[in-house]
Amino acid sequence: MLPKKIILSFLLLHLASSIFAQQSQGLDKHLSIIPKPLSLKETSGNFIIGKKTKIYVDGNNNSLKKIGEMLSAQLKLETGYDVSVNEVPVKMMKNAIILTQNDASDTLGTEGYKLSVSPQKVIIKSLHPAGVFYGMQTLFQLFPVKSETQIKGRFIIPGVAIIDKPRFGWRGLMLDVGRYFYSVDFIKKYIDYLAMHKMNTFHWHLTEDHGWRIEIKKYPKLTQIGAWREATQYDRATSQIDQNPHGGYYTQDQIREVVAYASDRFVNIVPEIEMPGHTLAALVAYPELSCTGGPFKMPLFWNIQKDVYCAGNEQTFEFLENVLTEVAALFPSPIIHIGGDECPKDRWKSCPKCQARMKAEGLKDEHELQSYFIRRIEKFLLTKNKRIIGWDEILEGGLAPNATVMSWRGIQGGIAAAKQHHDVVMTPSDYAYFDYYQGDPYQEPVAFGGLLTLEKVYSYEPVPSELNAKEALFIKGVQANIWSEFIHSAEKVEYMSFPRAAALAEVGWTDPKLKNWEDFKRRMGMQYKRYENAGINYSKTAMNVTYTAVKNNTDGTAIITLKTNSYQPEIRYTIDATEPTESSPIYYNPFTIKLPGTIKSAVFEKGVKLSKVSITSVLR
Ligand code: ACM
Ligand code: ZN
Hints:
About 35% of the residues lie in helices and about 25% in strands.
């Protein structure tokens, strides 16, 4: 038995540390909301979820009721309690989580919200259900991580008063399901991930040279033939020709199911039907829509295809109008993506029908023929109450009158479009192509060429300085694109998307004056835990140590500087080529080594290695 004195001092110590833990719970440094809200104040006291906690929503408000059910389901998952959803009049009792559209501020717009947490109640208030939904996402981020709840045995939400609204109305991610197909279940999960980042647009790249992924009732061969390829793509990830046939498509019923799922999460799905290029899969199924008449085979490699829709053939337009009629009926989105990128003009130049069209319409070159093509499609879609958006090549040969431009080849397309007073979504490849490497290619799974680190995504400012204040209003938002040439699994989609999507989310949501990389890095510590809780296969690459070496050629030494973008700054390193461990020296300041030398380092947290081991050898 322990002496009484020791037990007592142990108890006191324990008490003191739990009081400290309680107090520190309220400190800002423990709050890690991503994207960062417009205004966040800590208030005294906590809200504790217990057996008697109830959710209340405005009466006769089905949208709020649905959101309440989602909150209830999440609370059940996290606490085990059944927290019921009730419709009530305004006067509130204790121990309540209130979701309401009453007395909301109209300065916060449809997606803004107020969230207050006090010991008596939690209130989320917005003009619109979307704002209430985003308030709920913030509330989720105030939840303790599971391990903390288990230790304290109580589910505590710290007192706060948050006022928040997004900077941009278009905050999106694009997924290319053409190169590789992903299941309906995964697409739904991906929509959940968008929602948790307060993103509101899922750009679904449904057609490609390598696969047509959406059922079109009038043209069954599109998916019977165009959704499948034989053993084809050279897979750089495994350095092999993939011997398995690949394919798949979404039925219209599945599309409706996904659209409804997204709509419940305030995510608009923008379908993309590519034209006039990136269309070989459709031409394999219907070769009569091409300039040469085919026949064609599904492509074996990832290069851009020269065979595209014939712009001189009326059948092409009849086909596309029929396809778009079905697409327009499936997707409530007011805007449809018509592609428009990377359309080689080779076939049009030698096609008598295309040349005859140019002559008849007085078009001076093939760029104007592409512009004719897109304008004609725009005109048709306007009859269905749909506007078009296209990649920035749609500027070439003249922009269709109501088109929105997605600027991807840098920012010039976005600048040009905004100066013509057209809406713009910024997705410049240097900052927004999540198929690029996120770290040293030697330590990464195969990716597309460029390098796009978490820090670089975070640094992006979507409004180009070339625009004046009025033109800047045409920049409607930002989006990252996940092209899937080298992304053959859902797990890898997650790896490429996260955590970079968190940085993009903050670019799209947060007032730029409030952005701060160091603070973002700190908040990411919690975000990584959220990813783990959600089972997301996120990348830890940003935590890896990077090196700079400044050589002194006269004495054969080098000054080595180590850097990590981990929330946890504890780097441990070796200079004797052994693996760094939790007892290797901690890096504080640049140090000098004798050349040649090898440094190995990694980031640790409480003795656990968080990052990969980074190795650099510096020669004399
Ligand atoms: C694109 O990356 N071809 C839009
Ligand atoms: Zn033609």
